[in-house]
Amino acid sequence: MERHKKEIMTVASKQFDLFVGGAIQPPADGKYYDVINPSTEEVFAKVADCGCADIDQAVAAARKAFDAGVWSGMSIAERGIYLKKIASLIRKNAKELAELETLGVGKTSKHATLIDIPSAAETFEYFSSIDEEFLKSENKVTAPVKSLTAHEPRGVVASISAWNYPLIFFAWKVAPALIMGNTVVLKPAPVGSAAILRLAEIIQESGLPNGVLNVVTTTHNDVAGHLVAHRDVDMVSFTGGTSTGTKVMEAAAQTTKKVILELGGKSPAIVFADVDQEVALGGILSSIFINQGQMCTACSRLFVEESIYESFVRELVKRTRALTIGDATQATTEFGPLASVLHRDRVLNMVNEAVAGGTKVLCGGKVPEGFPKGAFIEPTILEADSKSTIAQEEVFGPVLCVFKFQSEEEVVKEANDTQYGLAASIWTKDLDKANRVAKKIEAGTVWVNTYGNFNNEVGVGGFKRSGFGRELGVEGLLEYTQSKHICIDQTPGGRPLEASWF
Q: Which of 45, 136, 317, 421 has the fewest CB neighbours in a 10 Å radius?
């Protein structure tokens, strides 16, 4: 496996504060936490570590902005002007934002530059031009009434995002919520928060009305829980781990507020013998090793038809060993560190426990040589029992479990044998077979002969313990609204039965 080490980029440490009520401000108690570059284990920034008082202030700012109607009273087209400005500002500051993501979570420079920043800008741009007509519809009813369904904003939305795609998740949560007329309090994960707080500073240039968007950061679970349970928060949109999602549901239940949950995954990839192997090999590598496997949709379980299993897996291992590991800031790095040493150690522990239980390591599974510092782990491929912990639990790292199968019926059963249902990919030249299998897979997204296509026009979400609700697309937009039925009597003469019942 190639190793790549060059002189590490040095960035002056910077302090990032909260964004509340349209202003950048320090936390009330003056506390900050260190943000560590996972490539070097060096502190590169300090981020505000807010308390409950800061949460109360942010929610109050969002509540005031919503209740005043300044934002919700605008048309979608008027709100869209601000979203277009935000998209433009993301592009204008792309280099700095990409660098902050790379330093914050170990995302390779190539990934941050070519995927995350453009995607975030495109999401704001796409939702800036939504047609307002779909928000109102006339219902066909037999009674002599005019029946209308209107979709109105929910109010104050608490958005809690994961660390693996900081800026993309920022866009996924903020753009649809804002365009629908809601106000937002966003709490990103502590890791990766520097890029989001810098974007909040940049967004000030858009002229967005005060309080419409607020960004708070904290390392304290009880403070995050205070945001979720807050009585002035009308809805919670959460992306993160399944166990944390359960706690979010419990906290939100205190005030019976709506919750969207996009949680963990253990997605299957199914490779049939008739596949274009060159295409499938590249697709499988991307589906588990992009972003160092830190993806909720990562295809961490690979099922290969028995007749090609040996040759396919042998070539997959060869290509995996050839990936260039290195500092995430270097342009030639293909595979960077995990987001933190703590997370790296968790992944290593899961691999070591699996090996102790009889799982076979085909490649990887340890810290690469020549990297005494940083959250590095080799991309790993394992032959495991499909019922084992490593094959059933989300690792959230670059660990692929491989299995062989003989029949279509068998592989569908095995692919669905998990508590999760977020995504899947199917690789075959036979599109009839692909469609047949796709219909039987229990997952919110099924890719055929590709992986990772997320489009702003299409909803994203899970089945089973991968959560519920949708982000993006019309489905995602409607999540941020509440429907209202307006019924207008049109009885000839204006005397409906109800008016003369008594």
A: 136
